[in-house]
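pinging the channel bc i need a second pair of eyes. not urgent but kinda urgent?? the chain im working w is below, pasted from the shared doc
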Amino acid sequence: MNPEPFLQLDRVIHEKGRLPIVSMLAATPELSFTEIRDALKMTDGNLSVHLRTLQEAGYVAVTKSYQNRRPLTTCALTAAGREAFRHYVDLLEAIVAQARRG
């Protein structure tokens, strides 16, 4: 088995708390902080840390605004985030194909 695809997996995305966040954001233009938190059953603090890591990597844009005079934080994948996720999925597909051939 060729280990190369495993070594190329993006560790920012691959972490178990961040993969579902990126997956959810890849399926929609944007989600609110509370939508992500509630869907993934994360604490505010845990989600904040993961979003900060994704934001620092340039994968997620976080926007703070107000809706009905209440704070609203929304998150969206950046172009770099979408490309990184596509590459991540391609590597996973290569790993699966390799395992099936083996």
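so The longest helix spans residues 79-101. and The longest strand covers residues 60-67. — does that match what u expected or am i reading it wrong
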